[in-house]
Design brief:
Length: 448
């Protein structure tokens, strides 16, 4: 397609906050410039997220800074869905559009503290910011709309939060949400009365409703597990907890729509588009065969304490698990330096290679220039140390944010070397294809 030079090119995200492609040097030189279309609310495949706004400002910071630095500055458009409850993300997007260099320099926590100081008062701003930090982190692992572990029109499935391994992932997530919800409710009671309505809509409702949505599915999972283990009394208690969680979502939503004399009555729905994920799931009502449990619920007694710390550098039951931020050494180059992102990824955060003078713009290193035999002084690298007692082949799994190559002329690649061996260059192709029905992309964006 030959587009006139004065036409503005629009560049889009993949509907889940990851920009699919940005202009290359030739396209950046066009007189028409470039525009951006970005989502913090979405109706479509593989699954809507129309209910609660849970896109972290930290992710927006990475992606929007990348767009700005590639000359996408003519027009920015944000899809906010029903606007409420996307007030915070909307404000952040507009601040980035108005003054990207200044906004890019502050962290997510700094933005949240400043924003809540504007809405409430100095005394409570930091506490509310911490609540929202935890809210974004838990939802980045799995949005509340995605807790059915299904796609829009498919049956709800058991979750991937394994109650039989890694220190009982199911119960850990339950407790984390219960704690956060209790903190949000307690803070509401401490606020001066004039702030409580706004606080409930902006902070308490998204936190407490997300907590209830998680409880609904996590307790449902436990009902199947307890039934399979012939604990029928526990299974019935689990089912009661499922119903209580569903009722709590309805109660919270009624309260939202009645706040301030019904000022926003009708704007909040507890079941957008009436998708199955918003129904009360069917709990186990009979003793199940253990073989009917999800295949990913594999029994494991991995070291619970090590897992909770996010690092398992000694082999336990043929498993080693190290969070990206737990490196023992790094090498920076003149082109840029490694940084940590505590707000993104699994608990503990993630790492990326950044450009000098900027805190969030990713620096894309040409993997074809990496040394062919071993890492050289000109190569940026991160080093991890672990001890293994097993022999034979091993499987390395590297978890990445599902970002796309920066433009049509580049790919996402990285190299891995073990004990000084020859580097193996790998292609991060998980988001290479952006089409409805592509299993890899669908599962990756649903789990970030």
């Amino acid at each position: 397609m030959k587009v006139p030079d004065d036409v503005t090119l629009g560049w889009t995200d993949d509907n889940y906050g990851y920009i699919r492609e940005l202009p290359d040097e030739r396209e950046q030189a066009r007189s028409g410039g470039s525009a951006l279309y970005y989502h913090v609310s979405y109706w479509g495949e593989p699954h809507d997220y129309l209910w609660l706004c849970s896109t972290p400002p930290a992710l927006m910071r990475e992606e929007l800074s990348k767009a700005w630095s590639h000359g996408v500055r003519q027009l920015w458009i944000l899809n906010v869905g029903d606007l409420k409850p996307a007030e915070m993300d909307t404000d952040y997007f507009l601040r980035m559009a108005w003054n990207e260099p200044a906004t890019e320099r502050i962290s997510q926590r700094e933005f949240l503290t400043e924003w809540n100081r504007e809405q409430f008062n100095q005394q409570n701003a930091d506490s509310i910011a911490q609540l929202m930090e935890d809210y974004y982190q838990l939802n980045f692992i799995r949005k509340p709309e995605f807790m059915g572990f299904n796609e829009n029109d498919k049956s709800v499935e058991r979750s991937a939060f394994n109650p039989l391994a890694w220190g009982d992932q199911n119960r850990q997530r339950l407790f984390a949400w219960q704690k956060l919800s209790a903190q949000a409710e307690a803070l509401e009671l401490r606020l001066p009365p004039q702030y409580r309505d706004a606080y409930f809509e902006l902070t308490a409702y998204p936190i407490e409703a997300a907590a209830a949505q998680n409880a609904k599915f996590l307790w449902n999972d436990r009902s199947y597990l307890d039934a399979a283990q012939s604990h029928s009394d526990l299974a019935r208690t689990d089912a009661g907890n499922v119903q209580n969680a569903q009722n709590e979502i309805q109660r919270l939503t009624r309260k939202y729509n009645s706040v301030a004399g019904g000022k926003w009555d009708g704007i909040m729905s507890s079941k957008p588009r009436a998708l199955r994920v918003f129904n009360e799931p069917a709990s186990a009502n009979q003793i199940l065969d253990p073989n009917s449990l999800p295949h990913n619920w594999v029994q494991s007694d991995n070291n619970q304490q090590a897992i909770e710390k996010g690092i398992l550098s000694d082999e336990v039951h043929r498993t080693i698990s190290i969070n990206a931020v737990h490196f023992i050494g790094m090498h920076n180059t003149d082109a840029g330096f490694w940084q940590t992102r505590p707000e993104l990824g699994l608990p503990g955060g993630s790492i990326f290679f950044g450009e000098p003078g900027r805190t969030s713009e990713a620096k894309w290193v040409n993997a074809s220039n990496l040394s062919s035999t071993k890492p050289a002084s000109t190569d940026p690298w991160i080093e991890y140390k672990f001890t293994t007692a097993g022999t034979g082949d091993g499987k390395l799994s590297v978890f990445l944010l599902p970002t796309f190559p920066v433009d049509s002329e580049h790919r996402l690649r990285y190299a891995v070397t073990l004990d000084g061996g020859d580097p193996i260059v790998l292609d991060a192709s998980g988001t290479e294809e952006h089409h409805v029905g592509v299993t890899t992309w669908s599962s990756n964006v649903l789990r970030n």
